[in-house]
Amino acid sequence: YNRLLGRTKINDTSRNFARVAEAVFATWLADEPLVSESRHTAVQYVFREILELADRERENTTGQWDDSRLGWIPLQLGLIPEEHDTQAELDDIVARAVDLPWSEGNRFWYVRNAQFLWELGYTVRRTRDYHVLWIHDIAAVNAAGEPDFVTHMGMVDFYLDALTRAVHAYDERGVLPLFLIFNDQLFYEDKQSRLWLDVLESPLDATFEFPEGFEDRAAALETAQHALREAVAGSARLQDEAQRHGADWLRNRIKVHVNITNPADPTFASNLLFPFFGVPDNVMRDHRKIAFYDVSEEDPYSGMGLYSGMGIGEHYAGPTWEDRSVLVQGPALLELKRAAYHLMLEQGFDSEEIPRPLRPRELAPEYRGLVQQEILENPYRGRGMEIHNATGHGQKNINVARAVLYTLMPPGSVVILPDSLWNSSFWAALLVGNCLSGGRVFIIAPSLENAPGAGQSLAMSRTHELLARLVVVQQLLGEEIAGSGGLLKVGFYDVDVPVSDLPGSIELVIEGLAATPWLAEMVPLHPRLMALLEEADERLADFEVDFLFEDAEQRKPQLHLKSNFFATPEAWEPILALPSMMEVFEIYGTQQEILETNRTVYTDVRLAYEPLKAAIDAALGSWLESLTPEARARFGLYLMVGSVNQDYRSLFMDGEAVYLATGMDAFYGIFDFVYLLTTAVWMNDLEQLETYLPAQSDFKWRLARFLRIGIQ
Question: pTM of the predicted model, to two decimals?
Answer without folding.
Answer: 0.95
